[in-house]
Amino acid sequence: MQTPVTALPAAARQPWRWLLLLVLMLSLSGCGINNIPTLDEKVKSAWSQVENQYQRRADLVPNLVETVKGFASQERETLTAVVEARAKATSIQVDADTLNDPQQLQQFQQAQSQLTGALSRLMAVSERYPDLKSNQNFLALQSQLEGTENRIAVARRDFIQAVEAYNTEIRTFPGKIWHSVLYSDMPIRENFEATTENADQAPKVEF
User: What's the longest Cα–Cα distance across the chain?
Assistant: First the structure.
């Protein structure tokens, strides 16, 4: 006579359930289920660096304007243009909540481009004032501004690459599946677009 098989008690089955759940979670993580939020965080981090470097440039502007004013106060129109462009650039902020807003991102880019243009005109003014060009404070600001422009170019490049990686992930297999199932609220992200000629290159700052 065959001995009947008795089911395992619920307490004995519980560890196996947790083990199976753990194996399933590890399998899913290996299939890229976490790629989309990870790449999204990289986009946000890269954008923070863009903002950080633009803010660094904005912080240099007041000292630069005051230094130029000390040697070329008659260049009132150029100095005013720089101050106004800086005020507009710092008034437009794009954070993680508005990073997906194309209009906000475009406004931010345009404001930063206007400040770049105003600074370029200010640099051209310095050519007419030899004493200004040889001033030590002015030379120090020149070096800091050049370094900042280079950092801006690098930060923008890193942001562009981060957005490209994120957008590619949610539009290709298997990321497209995870996006439709788990992350449908995370849209394609806007990227930088050149708003001026050679905008992908750091301006050459000459004094």
Answer: 112
Distance of CA 174 to the CA centre of its chain: 26
Q: How many CA atoms lie within 13 A of 8 on its CB side?
A: 8
DSSP code of residue 6 = P
User: Would you state the structure tokens that stand for residue 200, as one six-digit string?
Assistant: 């992908």
Kindly report the pTM of this predicted structure: 0.79
- 40-61 pLDDT, tens digit each: 999 999 999 999 999 999 999 9
How crowded is residue 23: how many other Cβ atoms within 10 Å of its Cβ?
10
| 188 has pLDDT over 50 | yes
What distance in Å separates the CA atoms of residue 35 and residue 16, rounded to the nearest whole number?
28
Which residues, other chains included, contact 176 with Cβ-Cβ below 8 Å and sequence gap of 6+? Answer: 170
- Judge whether 207 and 142 are in contact, CB under 8 Å: yes
